[in-house]
Batch of 3 targets.
Target 1
Amino acid sequence: MNKEILISVDHVSRYFGDNCAVNDVSFSVRRGEVLGFLGPNGAGKSTTMLMICGVLSANAGQITVAGYDMFESPKAAKKNIGFLPEHPPLYQDLNVDEYLCYTARLRGITKAEIKKAVEYSKQRCGLTDTGKRLIKNLSKGFQQRVGIAQAIIHSPAVVILDEPTSGLDPNQILEIRELISELGNDHSVILSTHILPEVQSVCDRVLIIHQGKLVLDEPLDKLQQDDHIRPIKIALRQPPPLEVLGEIEGITNIEQIGNHHFKIYCQPDIKTLNRITKMSVESDWEIYEMIPERDSLEETFVQLTRGESQPLSNENPDEAGEGSE
Amino acid sequence: MNTIFHIATHELRRLFKSPLAWILFAVVQFLLAIFFLLILSKYMDPAAASLFANYGVTAFVVVGLLQIAGIILLLITPFVTMNTFSEERQSGCIKLLLSSPISVTELVLGKYLGVICYLFLLLSLIALMPLSLLMGTELDLLQLLSGIIGLILLASSFAAIGLFVSSLTSLPAVAAISTFGILFVLWIMNMAGSTGSELFSEILTYASLLKHYHNLLDGIFNSADVIYYLLVSTLFIVLSIWRLDSERLL
């Protein structure tokens, strides 16, 4: 896991007037890592991404991409970036081929290699049959794909995608997720999204930003280790009295939420759950549902972004950022 | 250099993909053709011949036509330049450009070059009209050349001003109307001078876009006039570069 660091964001802050959109954020991304970037609306996700891409400049701090400082050598740094903003930057009057050729040239691909690059990225994004169609006539999902195609056309070291799956149908979402995991093999990917399962399926690491501050930076597998109590909903056709259930070993608390439905809080080890099912079979409770109320990522997200947040770098916790975009 | 060229061709292609560029061609040709016909028929009118006894065909017809071409250019350049940056900003494509490995200077020069190429095409169509007189009469070709150079310089400075205004706003219509306002003021500035003191009047007249154009139309090729237009163009190109550069800080 000790591959080279491709993006490093070092104590970066950004103000819009008096409004602090990003407050002292630091993190780094290594080659081959897919980073999920989460946060509520207006938390500063897009601003951070724009700063990494050099569209906005930071008021304080340093951003390095593939070893080049974004401020001192922006051209070299930007050569290594493929960026898909929230709204794909498309020229409606061009067709897909013309558009991709232009973006390839902007990224400094030589004339001899343009055709190959365009074909390759079209093939990766499932656009092989749409080359001659005008972008304005494409559906939202295809426009989104064109947006992704332009971001990867120059095989950059770093791909930054701002909500890449918005507006896509479920099949396309799956394809794009596959594409992102594929990209994660040899590029670094930063992915911002509101869809938590998406993060779980493709990301290696999760960042959560809230009110301009970084509140979580953890590998995904560590987050998914169930180390805290979380509610599980169970449904029994022939439920016993509440007390009987409450006495099962491992259950810390129990609530009845319907005639057949209970919410149990237990240590999330599989033994307790086994015990419940076993007892249900033995005593004919006829268990027919057992659903974790929330998964751990969602739980963490809600916990961290519901106001009373603790900043990750707890140097000055009382100075909680009040800014948003 | 290569990048500037790519951006310029892209700008030109985008212009011609929209009907606007073609409509502008058609409207300019149509309007100028009407004026051409009117001026020519007036010149040919035997009843009025004594009035123009001192004028040659170049001084009357060609200069008259180019003068009107200048005014029409003032009316249409805002529509050519309004989309350069406003549209990029509105569609979000400005993010693509700013995150690409190109400098703001290359971007602005590329866009400017694209607009200039379009205006040159337009001017070459305009130049065909007086040249058609060669079929029936002789022309003072050098005076025509000086007039065309004047028109080119005028177009370059209009384009630079339009480009700058377009970099200020994300609404093409706002860019167009503001550009028009600025160009118009610069055009008629010398008129405001007539009420003030002599020095005031001289400064305003000198700063006016119109005055220098008239010199060139009359066949007086003064390097001061050429430098004036080049300065105006450079000034507004530099301002656009500054403006876009500072955008990252906003």
Target 2
Amino acid sequence: MNVSSSGLTHRRVEMEDALKTAYALQNEGYAWHGAELARSLGLPEALAENIARALIASGWAEENEPGMRLTETGEARAVELIRAHRLWERYLVDREGMSLDAVHTEADHREHEMTPEELEELDAELGYPAWDPHGHAIPASGSRVPSPAGQPLLEAGVPGSKLRIVRLDDEPATLLTQLVALGLKPGIEIEVSSLESDLLRLRLGENVVPLSFDAASRVFVVPAPARLVPMGKLPVGSQAQVVELTGSGKLQRRMLSMGFVPGAEVTVIREAPLGDPLQYRVKKANIALRRDEANTLLVRVSSQ
Amino acid sequence: MTTTIAVAGNPNTGKSTLFNALTGLHQHTGNWPGKTVERKEGEFTHDGHVVKVVDLPGTYSLTAVSSEEIVARDFIVEAKPDVVIVIVDATNLERNLYLVLQVLELTDNVVVALNMMDQVESKGVKIDVEALSGQLGVPVVPTVALKKEGIPQLIEAVMEICEGKLDLQPASVTYDESIEQNIAQLEPMVGDSGYPARWLAIKLLEGDADVKEMLQAGGNSAAVEAAEALVQRSEEKPEISIAEQRYESISRIAQRAIHHEEGVKYLTDRIDDIVAHKILGLPILMLIAGFTLWAIYAIAGPIGGLFEALFSIIIDGASGLLAGTPWWVRGIIVDGILLGFQQIFVYMFGVLVVFFFIYGILEDVGYLARGAFVMDRIMKWLGLPGKAFMTIFAGYGCSIPGVMGTRIIDDENDRIITSVVVPFIPCAARIAAITAIVPIFFGSGLAATIVTLSIFGLSLLTVALVATVLKKTTFKNEPSGLVMEMPDYHPPLLSNVLRTTWDRTYSSMSKALMIYLPFSVLIWVLFHFPAGAAATETWGVQMGSFLDPVGQIIGLAGRDMTGFLFTYPAKELSLLYLGLSHGGVGEEEVAGFMGDVWTPLQALSYLVFLTLYAPCLATVAAMVKEIGWKWALWNIIVALIAGFGFAGAIYWGGVLLGFG
């Protein structure tokens, strides 16, 4: 994918960065002026005030006591920028093999250089991805940025809880580098093994890794969903609890009356000589089911 | 005033035993109107008061999954029995209480017979009977039906309800708020059909097709539509939530009344470790099946011999008595009717008794379900359900028990498919004909073995073809599967087994005779008229020339085909008729000359056709009884197609290859 190098002015980039920051502040419920922009962007206050006025002049923002507010066009442009940023991050990781902690800066450059058509093309080339590599949702063209899911690990991290990482703050970059080095990235499941005075210990597969409170506040998690398996896939001897019935008709009705209801405890007793059917114990009775029928029940494994 | 009580219960809870214990010998068996579900009725007298007992079919539930369930619930509502006894397996109460709660939704007058109480301890279960009765709000009587224990107390409780002496406050399941709201909304809409409104509302939410149909026919389609809308709007399928919540109620009842010890290894588990074993399972099944077939051949033969002798005496006597009557009266009575009786008793009775007896024992003990478990995969290749294995084995003895045996198959479509294909399995009669004819043309070495095995293989292929085609066409919308309880083993009760053996044999025999006898008379007439005609000029023989073109399809002469026509009632006579139509008498003589009449290819064609062409008349009778005349007719047509198709293909294929 080639990027057109249009004659972007330095001011334009500054304004768009401010626009994104303003959008984020506004979404989090903060009122903003030049001063807030200055703090978030790390710019001198005078320059930030200047930029803010430029935003108003270009029709992206307006005065709205006690602070300022983005106009509809301003919001639309902000979403477009976010979309471009996240699509580029996806591109850089997937197509150029760049590491997760390096893509943010590069995407920051590239996001400003896209026409809507090019953006569309990039989206299509990537197969319309839903998530950027940090776990942020990529807004569809013309939509709002979905509010981020999950809560900070620092809040959710009770020892013993099983969680799934949904997103990482992509700034500051050094912290992101550290998280990536530890193997923490969106989509993986972790278990909080202990909470100490200044750090959390997390279990990631076989490893236990320490994480500072500061870092833990930038990792966002949701409770790990119970892994449901089709009952026919359970090995002989395992026990499970029925969660969901996805079948229909007479067979399902018969299974229900035999006791295969949500919440029922099931043990796999044996397989028939030719591998099918299988014998299950439910409600103290032995019931034979073909694997196909068993697979219409989704269960949560309790032990094997 | 007669009192009527009904006995309901899960299969394998000792329901028949309880029924027998209540009624003794005062019972009769039939079918429920319009269903292939056995109906048993009996009576007993208590204090000079006659009590009629109706044995409802064994069911796990009262949904509309099977005809059994519909029969059971319709009887409870429509016949309004004074009391319903629900028999439950005390060693497996939770699952059994599911049916109890559903019966309680239909009627208040319920007594629970807590059966198999002698086994609870060994299975690590403790039951507080009083607490259970309190929870359910109806009398609970511990029984051991096998030893007739608790029967007087059970009758006592029944009579108390009849006389209104008991204050019944039956437990009813309260469902969660959203379901209860839906029920409340539907209740006023279901009309007055005799069924409890709450029950109808629940069934509508469960999506019960039978209840929907009934309400629509009764002009209450608004209720059906409203229910469908409510189901649509529900987050979870009400059918699932309702079942789930019934089981939750049961857990609460169980918590107060039942105590389980953990880790008790049942005898059943230890037996299953062997008979359902991954490697041993199949060989054990083959041994049992082999033994069954051996017993059929070893025992049925001598029984047939006895009947042959007995009927010879009767026939001789009758001939003497009828000496003064016209020749055709004598012919019809002696050679038509009495000989027909003899045939049926000689060839069928022994086979039926032996098979139904062994089958009854395997059923009573609980092994049938294990056999089905082990064989299910193989049966699936044939397009049949696992439980069909026993009826297929039976088919190698006689197609009639094979067809009758399909009753234990739960799914109606599977039952039809199995009944329709069982007759393709060569029965004892056909096997006898095959083993008699093969040596004439193929000797007794490898060639004979290959021919015999090929015929057997071809019959299985036909079974698989027909079953698969039916599955893929007529029954494609209702996928069948296997959801089968493997009940705990228990020792067989000989009196139970003998009784079911007798019931089944009697029912098959009477039906077979009713169809066979007129046909037997017809054949006699065809081969003896017009009056005074020479043996070669009777209608029957003349028909042979008409059949020449038909015979050509499979490379045989018309007179060979008349043989088929007349062996239609009973195929063991094939060789005899073959001789008759070629002017020979006696099987040995036939063996002597048929080798010159036919080429081996013609013999092969004959054998294939004989195996497939159509079930014998008695089997058709059994099919009519079990699955209705339309399916019986369907079977005959398909059998003819298969017979002509395979035999024709083999013959003409052989001719093309130069074997003609």
Target 3
Amino acid sequence: MPRDTIPPGTLQMLILRTLTREGELHGFEIAESIERLSTGVLTVEEGSLYPALQRLLVNGWVSAEWGTTGGNRRARYYQATKAGRRQLEIEQQQFHRVTDAIARVLQAV
Amino acid sequence: MSTLATLLRRLRAFSRRSRLQRDLDEEMQLHVALRREQLQRHGMAYDDAALVARRRFGNRLQLREQGVEAWGWSWIEQLMQDVRFGGRTLVRSPGFTATIVVTLALATGATTAIFSIVDGVLLRPLPFAAPDRLVQVYGRSWRSDQGLNTPDPLEGPIAAAELAQYASQSTTFSSFAAYGVGVRHIAGSGEPERLSAVVADRNFFSVLGAGALVGRTVTVGDPPDAAVISERLWERRFHRNPAIPGTSISLDGRPYTIVGVMPGAFQFPYKAASLMAGALPESRTDVWTIIEPNPAIPTGGARYSVIGRLKPGVTVAAGSAELRAIAARTERDLYQGTGIRVGVRVVPLTQDVIAPIARSLWVLFAAVGLVLLATWTNVANLLLARLTIRSNEVATRAAVGAGSLRLARQFVVESSLLSTAGGLVGIVVAKWCLDLFATIAAAKVPRAHEVTLDWQAFAFLAAASIASAVVFGLAPALWAARATLRTGGGMKMTRGYGRMRDALVVVEVALAVVLAFGAAVMTSEVARLRRVPLGIATDNVITLHLTPRTTAEDYYAIEDRVAQLPGVRAAGFTQLIPLQNWGWEADFSIRGRPLEGRPIADLRYVTPGYFKTLGIPLREGRTFTPQDDASASRVVVVNEALVRRYLMGDSAVGVDLNRGTIIGVVGDVRQSGLNQPATPEIFYPAAQNVTMASDIGMSLIVRTAGHPEPLVSSIRSAVHAINPSLAIFNVKTMNQVIDDSLWEVNLYQWVIGLFATLVVVLAAIGLYGVMSYNVAARRREFAIRLALGSRPVRQVEIVLRRGLWLTAIGFAIGALLSAHALLSFNILPIGRPPDLRAFAATSALLMLVSLIACAVPAMRVASVDPVTALRDE
């Protein structure tokens, strides 16, 4: 199965998108969710999820709380904040602008 | 994104950063465990699953590091490392560190102290309500009535009748208050004591807008015996008794009732002492009482100093214009036919108080600023010099991965540590300097008591320290940042580095030249003033002030008795000793010889021995004898200046003045200052006029055969044998009186001289350091030259020439700067253009110092052994 790594700079957007869709998740669930939704095409470089989450925390785009998993283990659950949703909005628009432009360049005869 | 909220989040996370690491560890561990379990569920063996899970996760340590770094305070931790490392480095070379910290502390402390003085005296508003609306009002000084073609100085006090006109007619002023300075003697419980006193109108305190510390100030409804005392007197005599209001005290034998105590910070008028130098050494006022009208004084009443308060929104110019109009009306209507003229000048009070001292303080501030600059330059130079030793360390650190920024930061941290230490010790130095200032300048500088080390001073000190860290930390930091771009062992001192040090030395030499020339100018000015003939004998002469005023019989008896003491040549009294005070001006007329304008002379009250004691030569006629007493006809002695100006050089003896018949003419004495020519003077015998002398008492002058100091106690007993109630103080030799009169130029001379010495030493150290470095750096080159047959003398010459070039450039810059400051801005208080010989001598001295500083390292070249030097490399 061919696996593509996530384009640089988009990890943050994917995390925010995942969290707005699915509510509270811990790190492993976020990674799983991204991989599942991309039907296995995109694979999160798993470790890099955590520095990215810290950066989101610094900016106040996600909040975190310790809870317990179904398997009764301690895990940190993340949730997108209101500012995080706004940020997602901005990044999505930007992303679409860029990809559309790239697509237009590629499709030009 | 809200920046503030982000900052708060960062700070909160920083406060529990160890937990942050644990949390990250825990969640990453969980992630790997969950992944492994998932893989196991897909049928993988435990070991394989664990391996794959770990591999998919990546480098956990590095990722944790990145997670922590996301919070953006790793720099704080690195900074702490830098601080620890820098601290260790500095402690390892204690001599180097101590040298820098001590020089910095001295320069920063002294600059901070002078800044506090400038701030407290010049910059801060006067401590009164709305001080910008307060003005000093001057009346016409009588000089302009002399028919001389000089502008009217308008610097005198104002007559009561004129002030009444201003007060009743003015619409621009809300109020005026008159005041005068004098002494009072307090009796009662405790020792009798002489107090520095002010008499003032009842609204004096309300015009200033000053309130009492205890009780209240004098107000308009008060009876004439109300008095306000100072906090210091309250403490000294009443032990801070809070029940002081209502207490009765006796001043000069009359009862007064204390209504309140003024806080220690309050003082008005400023310069109370300088108004009566010699007679009144205290700079602070002890007691304020109320002016009582004196109907005995004709034409206009007593004259007093006057302050006024402008109405809100009125400019000084508008107030001044209105008072001038009122003055003109007063002259026309009130004094019609008397020939008395009225004039008025309004000066903002702040300007009146600080103008006399402003230049001195700014010049001192500039001088100490130069010292600070030189110190920084020198420290930068020392730090750069140390880099030669540390180049290996820097290269090693760069090689193991320290970024150029990190290396540069290390040097900034070290210089910050040095400047912080220098600043902290500098606080002690500043405190010490200010204590010194308080003792030497209290009576000379207005507002001296308001100068303290407060937050402004600390802010200044902090700013100076930060600036110093930047100035001398930047040079090595830049060098380190650049040097690391070319890493890999080859850490040679670059050409640019050498040039930077050369430039620093040039700056130091230039600063040294400026300060040394300043010191030379002041020294030659003091020497010039010292050579000015004063007109009196100054050696073996001692002066003592006696107070309170007593009878003429007492003065004459004391003079006789002291003159007969063994070892005493002569003794006499005068009310005002030359150079301490200029005295009172008055008009006079010559019978049968009308003069154009109004002749003016200073009045002096003396006993017969005065002229002989001070060796003032008699030019014509005779001086006073004890027979010129109250029962004899009125006689006066005049000085040559009076004869020259008003008698056109004619024989003066026998000429009738309205103040007495001239019986003699004496030589001129520079009464008001060494830089002021003698003015016309009329001397009265004290026996005929003792009541006209004010209550400040008289000064006894004694000339002795040898040193006068040992005779002071026998003089004291002689005085007390005649009148035991006389207090004796201000015992000074005439030479000390002269020194005191030169205090301002002396202050300049000593302070600038001290600064100049310091900076010359710094510059010599800098020059020596650079030359030593040059010699060391070029050792190999010199060895080769020697090996090829060049003579050692030639080598020395090469090194020396370079050092002398640097000196010459610094010299030229310094000389240009000082010439500009001295000639264009006339920055120093000198009466004559400075003596060129002083410059020549200073230049020679500086050249000698530079030559030595260059020559010592240069000599080392001659002793280079080519074999050893080449083998070393």
